[in-house]
Task: structure prediction
Amino acid sequence: MSDTTVSQTKTFEYYENLTLPNCSKCQSNKVQMIIYGFPTQELLQYAMNPNSRVTLGGCVPNDEKYYCKKRKKLQIHV
Result:
């Protein structure tokens, strides 16, 4: 197994094991954590997956911490 494959696997496992709250507005469990900053290649690949538990928020950090996929809205608190 190559170093890249090991790194991707660890990235995927880490984010798949996150405990995320339901949306406080619609109670949907389709909530993603927003990750700010320049992503690694592994994180970028994971975030592009339709079932990803994260969304990329760009390079400038903001107050929003979660994204509700059902409502398509950013949220500070869930």
About this structure: The chain is about 25% helix and 20% strand.
